[in-house]
Design goal:
Blueprint: H1 6-35, H2 51-56, H3 59-91, H4 95-110, H5 113-123, H6 135-160, H7 163-171, H8 176-205, H9 208-213, H10 221-230, H11 234-264
Helix pairs in contact: 1-11, 3-4, 3-6, 3-8, 4-6, 5-6, 6-8, 7-8, 8-11, 10-11
Length: 265
């Protein structure tokens, strides 16, 4: 323990609960309570019902959840591939070149996501690559937004990677491609899984850029939540938010299991 005394540990826990409950736990509890209510005129919600969840897992809401999952999976895989490739390429550069690559990949997260959405919309609304009004433009925008996190995660792992393993494999006659697939990537697997989980979670909750790009037949769940609450359906929107949150947590738990096994390996 960093705090040796019992009184100090109790103080740390008290401060943690004091910050955690109102900032993180309480908003989630309010949304969960609202998702089961039909009205909320007092301190607590009233009229308990499961009708909001019945509507959230069927019809257009279920399609929106499927769209969000497909978008997040596609964007995560693309971001992981591009980020890993770029991080490995940057690791071989000198300090000035690596700083330039770092700046290029961090730039999309240094500006508001709505700016990224507008930039993608303007760039791909004219030939030769016309993506406006299609699902790929949404996936592309999400990929641009989350690739920076994959790049940074893999870059940090490469800095901690012991080169002795690769040198030993090369000394035994392994070709560079075999060293990459059999040595470097397996050693990076925990970081790759962590980056994939982070990219997936960020893509599932992305709204600003998506609002500028989504076509009518590719409506992600965050957009549906926004439109529901904007029309005054707060309780239905809360149920959709809980479904989105639960789905994201379940996927992250599955990814964490893979990461745990990779770390053990």
């Amino acid at each position: 323990m960093l705090v040796p005394s019992r009184a100090g540990r109790w103080t740390v826990w008290a401060l943690f609960l004091l910050l955690f409950l109102p900032l993180f736990a309480l908003p989630l509890l309010v949304i969960t309570a609202a998702s089961f209510a039909t009205n909320w005129s007092g301190v607590l919600p009233s009229g308990p019902t499961t009708a909001h969840y019945e509507a959230a897992v069927r019809g257009e809401s279920l399609q929106a959840l499927t769209t969000s999952l497909a978008t997040a999976v596609a964007a995560s895989l693309l971001a992981l591939t591009l980020g890993t490739w770029a991080a490995m390429a940057a690791a071989a550069l000198r300090r000035r070149g690596r700083r330039l690559v770092d700046a290029l990949f961090v730039l999309p997260v240094a500006v508001p996501s709505v700016v990224v959405g507008l930039a993608v919309l303007v760039a791909f609304s004219r030939p030769p690559l016309l993506l406006n009004g299609t699902a790929p433009i949404v996936v592309l925008a999400h990929t641009v937004l989350v690739t920076a996190f994959a790049y940074q995660s893999v870059s940090a792992a490469l800095d901690r990677l012991d080169p002795a393993y690769e040198q030993a494999a090369a000394g035994l006659g392994a070709r560079p491609a075999r060293v990459l697939w059999k040595v470097r990537l397996p050693l990076l697997l925990p970081s790759l899984n962590a980056a994939a989980g982070l990219c997936f979670a960020l893509s599932m909750g992305e709204l600003s850029a998506t609002m500028m790009l989504y076509p009518p037949d590719w409506l992600p769940l965050p957009v549906r939540i926004f439109t529901a609450t904007d029309r005054g359906s707060l309780f239905g929107g809360s149920a959709l938010a809980v479904v989105l949150m639960a789905t994201t947590v379940l996927v992250l738990l599955a990814v964490s299991r893979i990461r745990t096994r990779a770390s053990y390996r």
